[in-house]
Amino acid sequence: MTDFSFDLMEICAPGVKALKPYEPGKPVSELQREFGVRDVIKLASNENPLGPSPRALAAVRATLGGMAIYPDAQAYELRRTLAARFHVDPACITVGNGSEQVLELIARVFLQPGTNAVFSRYAFAVYPIVTQAVGAAGCIADAHAPEHPTAPYGHNLDALLAAINAGTRVVFIANPNNPTGTWLDRRALHGFLTRVPPRVLVVVDEAYAEYIAEADYPECTRWLSEFPNLIVTRTFSKIYGLAGLRCGYSLAHARVAELLNRMRLVFNASNLAQMGALAALGDDAHVRRSAELNRAGHEQLQVGLRELRLKWIPSIANFLMVDFERPVRPIYDALLHQGIIVRPLGNYGLPHHLRITIGLPEQNERLLLALEQVLAA
Ligand SMILES: *Cc1c(COP(=O)(O)O)cnc(C)c1O
Question: Are residues 273 and 246 in contact, defined by beta-carbon separation less than 8 angstroms?
């Protein structure tokens, strides 16, 4: 292949230069290829171990024959159903190819060179990526210290407020946060919203909201009428078990949503995604089952980790961030050789931690046994 006669980086958009792509969890097929291990379990990407609702599967199957036809660009039925569920107007909803695409739309609409987005250290890695991609600056607020009593490594709202300056357009907050599992309660987050300058948009990413039973967990969708600068994102990738289908959405003031929808490519959500998501919304029993399974698995893992004398960060999501108090690469590799994929967090600046998704009871058991062996070796 002939190489370019000039520096290709000179013609690419400035934001691209510093970009480091998101490191996803290792796919099962890759591990099978590399190590020849069979019976691989993936506890690396916070997917629902129960899979999707049978209703969602049936709806996707029933839609397959319509693949030659472009999807509904307005996602009319899906938006109407979401609007009814959250007591908002359908005009407040933006559907994305996964909620990460909605996050990207927010960056493309509201950020540009000379402006900045504020987020916490250890916040979800997509925020710095979408910010850099459009050439805006990321202002990183310090997180709580590892010794913090309730939310070690968690979002520090005072630090986030202090990081906001005249160039700030967006604050990204994941509640609960991935990869830490830490969360903000209703009073804290509401107080924060009252203190943020009205010209700054606050994105609250609630990817795990449906898992959460804590009484003072704030479902921010109720605050949309109070704070026009609030954008709440949700996804079908986590409790709904549809990560591979790619569907997420945001709720926001109708004028914000109108801008996001202007930037959105018209056919960004496939007809399979729209129909699968719609059917998933109609199966509350599957959601309940998934949340219950997660709670039991949470307990099982915590008991096992305690027996292994391991420390973890208190989490209300479907994963735990475990602190091995030493570099985890050898542990991660040894688990891979046993056919277990978890998530190293070196790219988050957390080389002593692994993020482990809560799986089925037998998967959790296999993980704990493997950890016991690996740590004894
Ligand atoms: C998994 C996750 C998402 C969801 O991404 P999709 O693009 O909807 O699959 C969004 N935010 C956070 C914090 C997540 O952990």
Answer: yes
Give me 95's structure tokens: 């559907």
The pLDDT assigned to 78 comes to 98
Q: If DSSP codes are grouped into helix, strand and coil, which group holds residue 140?
A: strand
On whether the CB atoms of residues 138 and 132 are closer than 8 A, the answer is yes
How much helix, strand and coil, in percent to the nearest 5, is found in the chain?
40, 15, 40
CATH classification (class only), 23-51+285-376? alpha beta
Distance (angstroms) between ligand 1 centre and the Cα of 309 equals 30
> Are both 23-51+285-376 and 54-281 of the same fold?
no
Residue ranges per domain, the chain? 23-51+285-376, 54-281
H/E stretch holding 345 reads strand 343-345
Q: Which residues line ligand 1 (CB under 6 A)?
A: 46, 98-100, 124, 174, 178, 205, 207, 235, 237-238, 243, 248
In this predicted structure, what is the pLDDT of residue 347? 92
**Which class is 54-281 in CATH?**
alpha beta
Q: Looking at residue 23, what is its pLDDT?
A: 76
Best substitution site from 238, 249, 319, 355 to test ligand 1's pocket, by max atoms within 8 Å of Cβ? 238
Handedness of CA 243, 71, 56, 92 (dihedral sign): positive
Which parts of the chain register pLDDT below 70?
none
The pTM score is 0.96
For ligand 1, mutation pick of 47, 106, 205 (most atoms within 8 Å of CB): 205
Per-residue model confidence (pLDDT) at position 38: 81
Q: In this structure, what token pair is assigned to residue 235?
A: 């996804």
Tokens of 281: 């919304």
- What pLDDT sits at residue 236? 98
E-assigned strands of 160-287? Answer: 168-174, 201-205, 230-235, 248-252
